[in-house]
Predict the structure.
Amino acid sequence: MNLTKMMLTTTALTVAAANAFADGHMADTMTAVSWGGAYQTSQQRAYTEPYMEMNEGLDVVWDESSAEAVAKLRAMDEAGNVTWDIVDVVAADAMRLCDEGLAMEIDFDTVLAAAPDGTSATEDFGELIVSDCFIPQIVYSTTFGYRTDLVGDTPPTSVCAVFDTEAYPGKRSLEKRPIANMEWALICDGVGIDEVYDLLATTEGQDRALAKLDTIKDDVIWWSAGADTPQYLADGEVIMGSTYNGRLFSVIEEQKQPVAMLWDWQMFDLDGWIIPANLPEDRLARVMDFVKFATDTQRLADQAKYISYGPARASSAPLVGQHADLGIEMAPHMPTDPENSKNTFLFNYEFWADYRDDIDAKFQAWLAQ
Amino acid sequence: MSDATAPDGSVLAADGTPLKRSLARSLRLQKTRALLLVAPLLIFVLVSFIIPIGAMLFRSVENSQVADTLPLTVAALQDWSPEAGTLPEEPVYAAFVTDMIAAVEAKEHTKLGTRLNYEQTGMSSLFRKSGRRIKRLDTESGAPLKDQLIAVDKKWGDVETWATIKTHSVRYTNGYFLNAIDMQRTPEGAAVQPEDKRILLKLFGRTLWMSLAITCSCILLGYPIAWLLANLPARKANLLLILVLLPFWTSLLVRTSAWKVLLQQQGVINDILVWLGMLSDDGRLIMINNQTGTIIAMTHILLPFMILPMYSVMQTIAPSYLRAAKSMGATNWTAFWRVYFPQSVPGIGAGSILVFILAIGYYITPEIVGGTKGVFISNRIAYHISSSLNWGLAAALGAILLAVVLILYWAYDKIVGIDNVKLG
């Protein structure tokens, strides 16, 4: 009898607890998904550590799955068990998650904090709000670094040095995908940035870009992980190579390698949060509370203390200070710094959503020849 | 024993039931018990292996997205044929607008755009753009929706757009399998892909021959080591075995990255060769980011899978056979080739099957050290699973790979005989 009674009581308590949770109570654990490495560390130090200090008893679990986030979220959704609460993805992936109905649509001005001077979130993020589901965090760029000791007396100033194997003989590393490489090829083939995408939409334009890449094909090492180019540069395996600007920052400033930045025609891209669709109420309440804190003006500026990516809010830029460990000013290392952003282009999300499958098939076939 | 026989002559058991029934019952009990004992494993294999693989393979033919999202349009397109070269009539456009309004409501239209974009470039943005504007169309006044839709985007005035929708509206399609062998599904039937997009067959071929090359080099390198292991005194053999197993316990990524450091042009091997004067500084060997890199790194990684079965088979070969052969006048070579080697073949067979099947599905190592010419079909499958999200094509590629492995296994059984494979 006693046992039955006890079980009944426990059941009642559990039900009561579940009800309490549903009443706007915030979950005690939150699963955040990111890229691992230095980037995730910068998020932990700027966002989750201060947030956990404010919320005792909260447990944040990290999952380093951002690279496969879209596929995994789709699989979780099909299995009916989404275990992630907030996911860091690049803008192109956020759009696809939004298209597939896997990410929640955000009402920016009610969900996110306004800037300290009262500017609404929508205005503060401005045109970086590229999707209804995507809360931008940082602006990063894919750009080139070169070995200062291998380029002789005339260090390159233009991205077209990549295609100039006479002036700069040696291997160069490029990403094993068409995005950005096709644009650079056309720009260096004399096409203006305004015409690049019109041209890339045609077979002739695609062939022209591949023909330009063909001129350096034997000198290219193709990378697929962001850590490859920094390693190739550090070992002197390549003379120049493309990668994310934050990776180059750490090669140059933290590892003190003889490498310099070539910001010319860097490709901007955005990285930020999405919240999976249809989260249970208590987890959603937690995530909403977190995301409001983690994307406010000060927090976005704080992240730049740990990694050289530009904050996505206009109001954060003046607050960017010194690197937390190295003590150097971070502003001149931001891809968005006026000195660095004379020639730039933004990842063309709409174009690549349409043409990615087609051009990638051609690009891979060309690589395999 | 008259009481053990029933009136009809059948034999009875001690408790009076017919012996036949009694036997059957005890046999059934035994079978149930055996089934219960293997049930946990059976259910585990079924739930965690057979069902997911089956579900994934089913995606290679499943294609109900178009028919589910645009049911009225698909029905209206029945009577239209793209060969005529004329656009569908107004009812098709009206049906499409009705379907599309429902699809936008259910947020299905962008998914469909992604699906159709695999077949025709530009569908993704066409559906997104049309989805934004579909509600603003005038469906009340009776103004032709055909013109209104073409005004939204002129691609709705292309026969090709409608042909794509019609071609891919079947619920079960061969389209993914055609794509997987560098062909495509068109209104006129199957057709080959344009030459500059053909890559998958080449990758299948490369995967097969490189896996074979890796298996062969594993045999060549592994055989002497397995022989040593089997013939050395126990203490030395144990030490050697640990050396074989040590890399086995090291992370795959660490080993692959180590090869990068060793093999690259500014790497350890090239540096030593240049220092020794065997190479000039300009003539450094290219041993990585190509097929050589993949073969070297994968041979190293898969070697233990070859050595261990060989070793366990060789251990069972009695040394007295060799001595007997030699005492009867065989040379070392004849004794080895005619007496020892045939007995070790089951070990080679087992090792080869293991290594070949593992190699054919390898993905991380070719991705890291393979460059452009050393990647496998599995790298393409990974791309379609995680980047392009074309799971149908990934499933078709996987199904073909599975079929190829099964055929090779069958061929192996016919040629060598699967009974002739031993793990020890």
